[in-house]
């Protein structure tokens, strides 16, 4: 009997996932992801364990996940749900930030209030974040989507789209650029707190087979966060160079996002369901009702607090 148990144990180990020494994480340029850029620039990331791949947009990051190029990705929660809807098995292992003003509805100066948007053209991305923020703004003004001329606009075209519309739903760093050009903020994500979230997702297969590099990545992230606290001027100078922004822009941009501390992150990722899973369930329902995903999603075991609790050996 004991020999059979030993044989079975060895068989299960042999059939388990082979250890992976290195992971590839994809991300685009966004202030909430900056601790990872900082970790790379400061040499906190061991390139034999983690490779950062910077891509021009979140759409390209999602494409790289779909094609299997990436083991992990920095995405918004709605982008994560879109991939899950497509059949990808992902786990959220870290929360980068919550948008508390970083996402915004901006209008031309002649638009005096939300109510005066009726009949006007509003440019917005075909994403849950764009739709959710716009819907919340319209509800505040007692307007509906049918009351406006909605124009679909990809992120790379936000500045051009604003020129040809009365208003636009956008986010940093375009937000600050357009405000400098005279755009007026009518509504922002501070009115819908803890709703727009940026997260680090990992393929569940990589969670099982690449625990050490995933842990190394997250420990490097928190190490960079500590550097930001200890040496803020130097940290902001490095991050500003990555984002092509000056120090004055950085202060404004970071006032619009909330970056959770480790303890808060553990709370949001823990439990069954976790607080973040409850947020994801509500968001998934919104996305399904607005035809942004193909089917209703049952959110189960989406989050893991293991890596934000553990420390690299």
Q: What is the overall pLDDT average?
A: 89
Give the neighbour order of strands across the main sheet: 2-1-3-10-4-11
Helix coverage percent: 40-55%
Sequence of secondary-structure elements: HEHEHEHEEEHEHEHEEHHHHEHHH
What structural class results from the helix and strand content? alpha/beta
Strand count, sense and barrel status of the largest sheet are:
6 strands, mixed
| Spatial separation of the terminal alpha carbons | 36 Å
Keywords:
313 residues; alpha/beta; six-stranded mixed β-sheet; five-stranded mixed β-sheet; 14 helices; 18% strand; disordered N terminus
Written account of the structure:
With 313 residues, the chain is of the alpha/beta class. It is built from 14 helices and 11 strands. The strands form 2 sheets. A 6-stranded mixed β-sheet has the order 2-1-3-10-4-11, sandwiched between helices. A 5-stranded mixed β-sheet has the order 7-6-8-5-9, sandwiched between helices. The N terminus is likely disordered.
């Amino acid at each position: 009997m004991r020999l059979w148990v030993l044989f079975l144990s060895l068989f299960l180990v042999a059939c388990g996932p082979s250890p992976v020494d290195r992971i590839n994480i994809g991300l685009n340029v966004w202030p909430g992801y900056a601790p990872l850029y900082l970790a790379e620039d400061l040499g906190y990331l061991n390139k034999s364990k983690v490779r950062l791949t910077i891509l021009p947009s979140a759409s390209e990051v999602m494409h790289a996940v779909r094609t299997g190029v990436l083991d992990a990705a920095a995405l918004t929660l709605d982008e994560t749900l879109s991939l899950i809807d497509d059949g990808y098995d992902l786990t959220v292992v870290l929360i980068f930030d919550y948008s508390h003003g970083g996402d915004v509805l901006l209008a031309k100066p002649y638009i005096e209030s939300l109510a005066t948007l009726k009949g006007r053209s509003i440019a917005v991305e075909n994403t849950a974040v764009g739709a959710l923020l716009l819907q919340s703004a319209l509800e505040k003004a007692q307007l509906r989507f049918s009351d406006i001329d909605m124009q679909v606009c990809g992120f790379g075209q936000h500045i051009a789209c604003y020129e040809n519309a009365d208003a636009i739903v956008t986010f940093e760093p375009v937000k600050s650029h357009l405000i400098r050009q005279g755009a007026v903020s009518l509504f922002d994500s501070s009115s819908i707190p803890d709703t727009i979230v940026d997260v680090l997702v990992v393929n569940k297969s990589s969670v099982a087979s690449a625990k050490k590099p995933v842990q190394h990545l997250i420990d490097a992230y928190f190490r960079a966060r500590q550097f930001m606290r200890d040496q803020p001027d130097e940290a902001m100078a490095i991050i500003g160079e990555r984002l092509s922004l000056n120090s004055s822009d950085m202060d404004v941009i970071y006032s619009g996002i909330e970056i959770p501390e480790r303890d808060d992150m553990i709370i949001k990722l823990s439990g069954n369901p976790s607080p973040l899973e409850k947020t994801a369930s509500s968001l998934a329902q919104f996305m399904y009702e607005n035809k942004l995903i193909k089917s209703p999603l049952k959110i189960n075991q989406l989050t893991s607090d293991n890596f934000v609790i553990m420390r690299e050996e």
